[in-house]
Amino acid sequence: MDFMLSDSLMCLDMLHIGSQLAVLDDWMDWHHADVMDGHFCPNLTLSPDLVKAVCSVAKRPVEVHLMTERPGEWIERFAGAGAAMLSLHAETINAAAFRLMREVRAAGCRVGIVLNPATPLDSIRHYIDETDRLTLMTVDIGYAGQPMVPQVVSKIREAAAFKRKSGLSYEIQVDGCCNEKTYRTYAEAGAEMLVMGSGLFGLDTDLEKALQIMRQQQRAALAGMKQVACG
User: H or E stretch including 133?
Assistant: First the structure.
């Protein structure tokens, strides 16, 4: 088996985004844009203008991960910038989840839902069937390079089991600490897609080499493993 892969745009060299995107387009399934507002998330990253520039040249679709206190205020901006999917944090939308998810679809985007490490899967049970992609954070939001929160592995298993039992089709994505030490753990738990940050960009300053190393590490970690039946 192979994971579907998405690169974390916040980890790119901001002086060489165009050339790096050209390389990543040949390896990745998606690009992942982390949007942080300094309130819900203790950092500031990636504006609608940058996402628009990426979408104008990228061959792969862009998922915008809205780590913002008021995600509803950004739906039209990022949809207009060309995002193919908007992923909203359950912690910020549960008072208006159905309305905001409808707004995302009306804007022409697929719907993603994101859970922080401490947020239980039960918190989204009433609208998980409306979700195209479920992203489980395995680190606290805000910064790349953190160690995995091990308690999240059981939540990945729970999400995969619920998907099988319910006959749903949401993609199970893991965001955080995706590297050679965790690939097999995530796959065995039922993860289908990874957001690659430091586990890719920290491998080599030459991005093409880093991608080759990443692929070798993933295939070594998953060798001989039977694919988890999530569909």
Answer: strand 133-137
Give residue 144's Cα distance to chain centre. Answer: 13
Active site residue 175: yes
- Specify the pairing of strand 44-45 against strand 30-37: antiparallel
Residue 34 a catalytic site member: yes
- 123-136 pLDDT per residue, tens: 999 999 999 999 99
d(CA 124, CA 94): 8
Query: Could you give the domains of the chain?
Result: 4-222 (3.20.20.70)
Q: What's the token pair of residue 189?
A: 């738990």
Alpha carbon distance 173, 142 (integer Å): 18
Catalytic residue, chosen from 13, 122, 175, 206, is 175
- State phi, psi for 99 to the nearest 5 degrees: -65, -45
**Quick check: 23 pLDDT over 60?**
yes
Which of 7, 34, 37, 132 is the catalytic position? 34
